[in-house]
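Lab notebook page, bench 4
Experiment: in silico fold of construct C2
Operator: M.H.
Input chain length: 290 residues
Purpose: comparison with the prior construct
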Amino acid sequence: MPGTCTVITNPLSGSFTPQKLSGVLDFLVSHGIIPDLQHVSTPESAVRCAQAACRSQQNPLIIVGAGDGTINAVVNGLTPGTATLAVIPFGTSNVLCRELGIMSPEAALEKIAAGMSRNLCVGSIEKDETRHTFLLMAGVGLDGSVVKGVKTREKRLFKKGAYFLSALRVLQSWEKSRFEVVSGSRVVECHSVVVCNGAKYGGNILFAPGASLFEPEFQVVCIEHETRLEYLKTLPSLLAGRGLKGSGIITFPARELEIRGTKPLQADGDYYFDAPVHIRAIPDFMKIII
């Protein structure tokens, strides 16, 4: 491991405490790693910290002790192919950490000390001149509408419960419009789509078996269903740990695709803009401690 690292942490993250951060810093120093601590509170400040680390070091080790939103922002500030990222679960859901099997700060520190890493693939969302990188998933349709509808005040008060409240509002104002997903010669008309770079949804739910952060290919899950009842019928396969399967579910691998229509898009749990968008896989974007 390098002798120095950049530690980026967000004190507003759901499970952050000063005591946990102190334990992380003490651990790093005891293992001969000198941390450069950076506190951030917005995505923009996290992007700037990551950019600065990449400018000042050829192959920086960047440790993020925060939630998925801050981790996503850090990734969007990295210079492709240069950085090694380590993640410590200081957030509310900690979806990326769960995908990697990192269930506690102590487990994360053990992995940092061991220093094992793998090349990681990310997704790039392109809309006009705007580009955004995601790690786990991008969804257009139902989940995009739910994430777009989350209210900041409710998220601060109720954490994950804010998404449930938004889902109730989306269910109440349900709409049935469809759009096209295009990949090569394949065209699928659907009500929702989730482009999966990771296999799990929300941290614990196996959603797209076969998807992997380490392979330069997505699992694209298209949902043709238009009614609330049809969506409910897909829950048994999810709850049984088989992924989203059944009638009206079309899954296929893709490295690049176009999503048409004008429905909201979420990436790694945050709303960014509405479709249409172009999405492509970027292999070996960075290394990640495993």
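Observations: The CA atoms of residues 77 and 265 lie 21 Å apart. The chain has two domains: 4-115, 125-282.
Next step: discuss at group meeting.
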